[in-house]
Amino acid sequence: MIKINFTSHNKEVYCNKGDNLLEVARNLNIFIDAPCNGNVSCGKCKVKLLKGNVDTEKTLHIKDEEWEQGYILACNTKVIEDIEIEVPSKLSSSMHGMKIEGSDKKRDKEIFDRAKNIIETHNLDFKTNIVKTYIELDEPTLDDNISDADRLERHVRNNLGYDEIDFKLDILKKMPVVFRQNNFKVTITYVKKKNKITILNIESGNTEDRLYGVAIDIGTTSVVVCLVDLYTKEVIDKASSGNAQIKYGADVIHRIIYSSKKNGLDHLNKAVIEETINPLLESIYIKNKIDKDNVVSLVVAGNTTMSSLFLGVYVDYLRQEPFIPPFLKSPKLMADDIGLNVNKSAYLYLAPSVASYVGGDITAGVLSAGIWASDENILFIDLGTNGEIVFGNKDFMMSCACSAGPAFEGGGISCGMRASNGAVEKVSIDKETLKPHLTTIGDCDPIGICGSGIIDLICQMLITGIVDRRGKLQRDLDNKRIRFNEHEIGEYVLAFKEEYNLENDITVTEVDIDNFIKAKGAIYSGASVLVESLGMDFSIVDKVYIAGGIGNNLNIENSILIGLLPDIEREKFEYIGNSSLVGSYLALISKDAKQKLKQIGNEMTYVELSVYPTYMDEFISACFLPHTNIEQFPTVKSLLGE
Amino acid sequence: MIKINFTSHNKEVYCNKGDNLLEVARNLNIFIDAPCNGNVSCGKCKVKLLKGNVDTEKTLHIKDEEWEQGYILACNTKVIEDIEIEVPSKLSSSMHGMKIEGSDKKRDKEIFDRAKNIIETHNLDFKTNIVKTYIELDEPTLDDNISDADRLERHVRNNLGYDEIDFKLDILKKMPVVFRQNNFKVTITYVKKKNKITILNIESGNTEDRLYGVAIDIGTTSVVVCLVDLYTKEVIDKASSGNAQIKYGADVIHRIIYSSKKNGLDHLNKAVIEETINPLLESIYIKNKIDKDNVVSLVVAGNTTMSSLFLGVYVDYLRQEPFIPPFLKSPKLMADDIGLNVNKSAYLYLAPSVASYVGGDITAGVLSAGIWASDENILFIDLGTNGEIVFGNKDFMMSCACSAGPAFEGGGISCGMRASNGAVEKVSIDKETLKPHLTTIGDCDPIGICGSGIIDLICQMLITGIVDRRGKLQRDLDNKRIRFNEHEIGEYVLAFKEEYNLENDITVTEVDIDNFIKAKGAIYSGASVLVESLGMDFSIVDKVYIAGGIGNNLNIENSILIGLLPDIEREKFEYIGNSSLVGSYLALISKDAKQKLKQIGNEMTYVELSVYPTYMDEFISACFLPHTNIEQFPTVKSLLGE
């Protein structure tokens, strides 16, 4: 046996000769960010060898200077003798992304208002089919000695007027003790369906005022959980964190590949349920003094892959031609089926997917955006991991998925991070000094950059001439913030480590910019094709809704200038935030909305870009700042004086 | 920490000073029989202290000679220092009772024939609502790329003609891989209900010929599992063992008391599911090469307490006035709800109980006995642990429960054992030598005595004058088989240890006889009251069915002579064996029979003996051999020449 000492975590572990260092760390629950899931392609899993020798190789990701200091890629390292390893505490290799973030009351209110607006505008009901009622059962005597279950049934029949009563074993298990805690005075929670009720909870005494539901948005990168009062329909609290699946890969493809490996599916399922959602729920319960048994309904939205992994369903055939998902519509589920930290009998509904790469997050988003009832032509762009686009109105809806990767959520960018505290969300660059002015979320010192920040940064680099329209740094600028490594790859320093007491400089490299240009090119070309496939162009679009985790301070102007969004009237654009969460919330509080959501899933058309004749050409043309055809971007043309 | 070395099991364990020795052994899974569940009342948990000192006391159960040898009661012993303990390997403290016993093809055939007879006599259907069908799905292409779940649904709609399809998560989890193992050729198992089907299983290829169900009888003492081919309806195999709950007490009252202690309910639930039923199923699967996923339906019968513990439902209120059971009717259940070792989606039905002490074993027994359709007056006596009685015909059925304890299954008798190999099942005693002639189950050397053997033995002791009508041994008989201990308690030696190379003599003591007389008195008086309550006497009875685990060789004549059964025409009696198992089997193979079973549960009347005015007098009168009023037993009167 070989001993590894992870000095940074004060943990020792024994493993076998030849074991992979990244795997060993994972088994020990030491988080090492590995977006490519150990394929030696992203270079993020850099750790420092303090003592001993390993079987490894220097890769392009490791600078000479780093190599000399002992930096190695964990995924590319076999353990051969006792060693000491330091996992750098910087962003990329910390659990920072898993920090639970609380709620912002103002934003919670926005969710409620947006949903309420949809409900009112479209005359939807504002109610669920879940009821909670306080009842007083007859106390048993020697002459009235029917069983506890029969006593409840008799009461329901005689006093509530339902013919049939149904419950799961967990309810039966509660019955004897709950009945006797308060002399057979109890509160029952149930779902009614015609003349039958299904009991979801029984509690001692009168607890009629406590009835909750949960809306969950499972993003590939981030997960948001939203606790809702099912009486007032108000958002009580919200909490979010990174999706703990990130350690198995940053995007859905890497996750799917991992899921097909031994125990992979189980690991991914546990990562999202036990390591992400359940802790988020627990944090809300503690803060708000909520009994989890009072959470009796859930609506969950995620892309097709996230939905499958959430249920622990094998999803590898999604990745192989002909790209078949295991399911699109939500199966009938109860929370206990997958071990969620809520009432065991709670109803669980998954927003329906449309296709392998247009999932429940999009149908929920479309529900909240109101496209299904709109007279205007709406272009809906979800800038999450990957990126999905819907175009339509009340008569038709078309959707497509772009292979944009996780760039808009900070993935695939060396100093990228999701839109949370410490993320640079706005950037302007001084034309003379080329010094950036940074605004961070939470107004703290910067620790990385999120999607909206990257857009600003690249736009400013383009305008100030730091990069050309191919995204390459000018070689002849003499400025300490612009530098090139031994492979002649340029980088711009957003923040020197000395400025903010960081472990490393925050930089954006030409590789990062290239990744980002591909991402924004995928979105723009996807939108173009969708509109063109109807024989139209962007002028037909009445409204553009931008959704997703890109950050609240998305600068529309800058997004247009770099060619992410079409160069049309600015007032047509609106950033609508986490529309998937708002849609889940809508379906949670309104039966009608849930019905609409099902309908959206059934009726939306899917366009497969990869087989669409002109898509590849469109994509290549869009991989430029803003586009090879500058005529499509008159604003940029005049700004750059071309 | 204190070390205990169980030399007999070659196991060492550490515990705390003051820990109870019986508890420590249980935690280590060392079985020490404790019918009274550690109340220092039965004296069965006798172990030998080989080394060290303990905090214990000599009780009446320990003979002087044993005390000198180091024998102590585990339940009455606190550990105070390192010790060595030997758990005697004799019957009372071995795992003998948990040995899995296989099937006897002849008896299996009897089950089938008895059930078939009921089905034919009463024109019941001979079918279930479970169907298995081989289907060939269209293979997916880029043009036909609907999800796996939708593909199945489409096929069912178009080809099988059902409107709705439903399945649990475990089926969805199987789908992607099973579909592709054999090019989308699969076999589905489903339950149909009107125009809707619920999928219970999907398998690759054509497996239409494999469809199984399981009937289970959960006795307080023994458990029998019966695997059934749902096509042919034949019994494929049967296996039985003791109920592993026995370590927590021999009768339902001790179990209920234990269930209300910390973790007690959980321990009892695990004992019956994980330690009893699942191993029995596993033994059958291995022997018959059965895939557990093909077991899709179960019918289970047990008394009210066994039914509750089987589901893990709190049952302590059954023991406290007004004696309320948690449930009587079977809740809707799937095998996975309680972790049974069968298909997760398998349907699980519990035979309904009638009252706190008349359970599903009795309704199932009554189903198989055909009382519900009989013109004749039938007296049904279940001689299991406790003992329940039903009297009735097609127009009415009345039931009662007797506090007979476990004596008929060998419990509460010092050398008692259940009716399995090595149990003495027949006894005759030579009038001159007083030497017994023994017949054992399996024709092996005797290791204990079962219910039918005890009846024979006591009857023979009465006839030969070894005991008087009070059950006391004659003091003046000079015979080596009759002896008295220091407390003047007499015993009769059935087998000397030297005769069969036993660790101890097999004896029956006056205490045993007294216990048995109380048990038989409870049954006889219960039956009397039931018949009398209708203003009748035993002459009105047309048939007496004896059911239960008392042993196949019950001697009716002897049972009458000792006053267990009424002294009426011998041809009216019939031993029908494990009627609870036959009833479960019937409900498993016939929809109509299951319906009848529900009806029996709803319609049977329950008579509470403890509040019945004349019961106590009747009981006391019956605690005699055969009865204080010998006029009720003319046969005995003439035999004893009184």
TrEMBL record, chains A, B:
Superkingdom of origin: Bacteria
Gene Ontology MF, one: iron-sulfur cluster binding
Boundaries of every 2Fe-2S ferredoxin-type domain copy: 2-91
Pfam families: Fer2, RACo_C_ter, RACo_linker, Raco_middle
NCBIfam families: corr_regen_AcsV
Protein name: Uncharacterized 2Fe-2 and 4Fe-4S clusters-containing protein, contains DUF4445 domain
Species name: Romboutsia lituseburensis DSM 797
